[in-house]
């Protein structure tokens, strides 16, 4: 991971980069676990306009490396949403840094646990970070794992 990696809040103008990261992930990474029709539906969902709307409704963050947006995550309190890392950058610790960021914020607000929904593709990542399965749910995009992690370890 580059020492220049920075996590900052989503800004006006980040929408195209975030939309591009999400759709690249869906096509290049999540496609190994989902049928083409589901990937197409999800790509159609994450337009620039939709990202800007989500950034208004939740706290959205981006990871920036050498001036380029390479990952994103969102949170609403202790709930995690839209965690994606640019496929070229996967496996270099960006996802862990983004999750640490939202966990610290939720912990500072007094939440006892973090909760995330995970795709089949993202499930192992969350487990590696200490998240534990609590249930599964069915969404428009298929099976979703719900996982939680206690936050006492992340208190500043
Ligand atoms: C899942 C994702 C966000 C992980 O981001 P990343 O930057 O590659 O993750 P990191 O490099 O920070 O990995 C942190 C740890 O998790 C592990 N890990 C990452 N992805 C994993 C997976 N799918 N299964 C098991 N372990 C995984 C890493 O090996 C690393 O372990 P280590 O600390 O022992 O080395 C990224 O692969 C991605 O965007 N995937 C496609 C989109 C997606 O599925 N998003 C989740 C939506 S629910």
UniProtKB/TrEMBL annotation:
CDD domains: NAT_SF
Designated name of the protein: Predicted N-acetyltransferase YhbS
Domain named N-acetyltransferase: residues: 5-152
Keyword Metal-binding: no
Lineage, broadest ranks: Bacteria, Bacillati, Actinomycetota, Actinomycetes, Micromonosporales
Keywords: Acyltransferase, Transferase
Pfam families hit by this protein: Acetyltransf_10 (PF13673)
Any one Gene Ontology molecular-function term assigned to this protein's record: acyltransferase activity, transferring groups other than amino-acyl groups
Keyword hit for Transferase: yes
């Amino acid at each position: 991971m580059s020492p220049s990696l920075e996590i900052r809040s989503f800004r006006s103008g980040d929408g195209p980069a975030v939309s591009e990261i999400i759709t690249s992930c869906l096509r290049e990474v999540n496609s190994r676990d989902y049928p083409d029709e589901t990937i197409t539906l999800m790509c159609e969902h994450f337009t620039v306009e939709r990202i800007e709307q989500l950034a208004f409704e939740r706290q959205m963050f981006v990871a920036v490396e050498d001036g380029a947006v390479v990952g994103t995550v969102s949170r609403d309190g202790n709930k995690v949403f839209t965690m994606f890392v640019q496929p070229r950058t996967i496996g270099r610790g960006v996802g862990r840094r983004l999750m640490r960021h939202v966990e610290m914020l939720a912990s500072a607000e007094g939440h006892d646990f973090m909760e995330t929904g995970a795709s089949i593709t993202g499930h192992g990542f969350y487990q590696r970070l200490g998240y534990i399965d609590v249930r599964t749910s069915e969404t428009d995009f298929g099976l979703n794992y719900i996982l939680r992690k206690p936050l006492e370890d992340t208190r500043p």
